[in-house]
Amino acid sequence: MKYKVNEKGYYGDFGGAYIPEMLYPNVEELRQNYLKIIDDVDFQKEFHQLLKDYVGRPSPLYLAKRYSQKYGANIFLKREDLNHTGAHKINNTIGQILLAERLGKKRIIAETGAGQHGVATATVCALRGLECVVYMGEVDIQRQAPNVARMKMLGAKVVAATSGSKTLKDATNEAMRDWINNPVDTHYIIGSVVGPHPYPDMVAIFQSIISEETKKQLLEQTGSDKPDYVLACVGGGSNAMGMFYHFMDDEEVKLIAVEAAGKGVSSGLSAATTYLGKEGVLHGSRSILMQTEDGQVVEPHSVSAGLDYPGIGPQHAHLFKTGRGQYVSITDDESLEAGLLCTQLEGIIPAIESAHALAYLEKMEFKGGENVVVCLSGRGDKDLETYIKYFNL
Amino acid sequence: MNRIKELFEKKKNILSIYYTAGYPNLGDTVQIAEALEKSGADILEIGFPYSDPVADGPVIQASSKQSLDQGMTLKVLFEQLKDLRKNVTIPVLLMGYVNPVLQFGVENFCKACAEVGVDGCIVPDLPMVEYEEFYKDCFESHNLCNIFLITPQTAEERIHKIDSLTNGFIYLLSSSATTGKNLEVGNTTEDYFARIKGLNLKNPTMIGFGISDKQTFDKACEYANGAIIGTAFVKAIADGNLEESVEGFMKKFRG
What we know:
CATH architecture of the domain at 13-146 and 211-248 in chain B: Alpha-Beta Barrel
Oligomer: heterodimer
CATH topology of the largest domain in chain A: Rossmann fold
Shape of chain A: globular
Largest interface: A-B, 34 and 39 residues
Strand content of chain A: 15-25%
CATH class of the largest domain in chain A: Alpha Beta
């Protein structure tokens, strides 16, 4: 349990709850109750029932034959793209909406980048009949139009964040402001393993279903529940944390986290946080973030809205600093090429976020026969316009 | 020597004004301080801007952005404040978010505050536990007060803990809100103010958030040692002659 959160809410040097007093009662209420609620038998029953019947879990672990041939290793894709709403995000929103109900909350707010978390939140709010407000950067609203339409159809109010770079960071700021102004009846469903403690731990627990299933599926398919490598993309890092969770304590399993290099790590248009960032505080926790010498947060860039974030979750910062995880980055161009390759080799159009993880396969060297699991965190329907434009299809 | 303590001992109905350093122009910081003292302010809260001010509403966000765009940093601010104590004698607090302080270095920050004659700080996203464990000694060895916020939702036990940790005043938020919301004093707000008054805290209290005119200021003074005005002042100095704007604004309260 070396990499899990301690009783003070920290992962090594990272984590904590750096929040203004206005948020303290809400966050403290969560901190005192989240484990109690999650461990409750009825909660577990309802959570797993919904994951099975509503989300469609377990998601398949698919041995991608043509990929495997190409790279000379056994490449398995964990098919989170096949979940209801098209990404891993719904694992967390199902968990948090059940938790919010048990805390007596009547109103749900969320931030979203690519719109996947917003859609997943709007979906569970429709399912449970709760009011839903989603904050989304103005730029992201433009580039993720289909997801905006889905949220509206699901009954959510989509509010544009118009400050800063008008992307995920700014949407998160607006959601936090909403929570400050609505301190009693509202639950904030954070979509990634970021935010003040206990959010990073809570979201990681809900997403850990990804590695829990992967272990079982690997055992069935290969006779061993232990892969050589697991790969996932990292914006804030929720699919990666879900993918790493049950492998973290086994040091023989190599964890590879793929960040978005944007137009290149030295281009000034990048979201490669561990490469460009320094330790500091962002959105309520101590972590690694891209910032100026004066401690102002730097605007990130990535073609992928879900990775367009200047920080990473505190647990990732810990995995990075201790060397337990290898943090690498992939450019916009490389990710789009990888997305097309996946489509043509395996007949799967991946989200551009997930395509970052796939793109790193190209840079790895295999002896032959290694078992490699890539988290295919989402499907690419929302990204068609970007793909079409880029490849002149 | 403690200017804050002295002030609360001798004065009632204390008026504290917040403004963003480096706004409307980068070089205005000290000039505003001087103008405010001249026109009757009792305490100054000088905001050092941050790119992601989650506890602030649109007005202070915009002033922070403009200040940053004009080149404000903590380094620049401390350089400007070297002249602060030439003409300013009232207590001065610095207010801002924790990340710039971390990057500047907590020790360096405290030292720089003491050198230019700053009396204390308000860092809303610095948690009490972390303050107690890692910052308190440093703050106290430089004679800096650390001011904490409480809201209507803050539990009584926590209020007493805050009272024991600070030695300036306690910043009473009229409601849980981002800055710039109007104060609607209803029965629940008055109950809350009265409840806090009844706790007999060792520290004085100042009411902030939503104070914008003489009426709301007087109301706040019924329950606390004074009140804090931020957004309304920042709005008032957005354009026009700076000294006239400051004087005109202050006349409403100190007429």
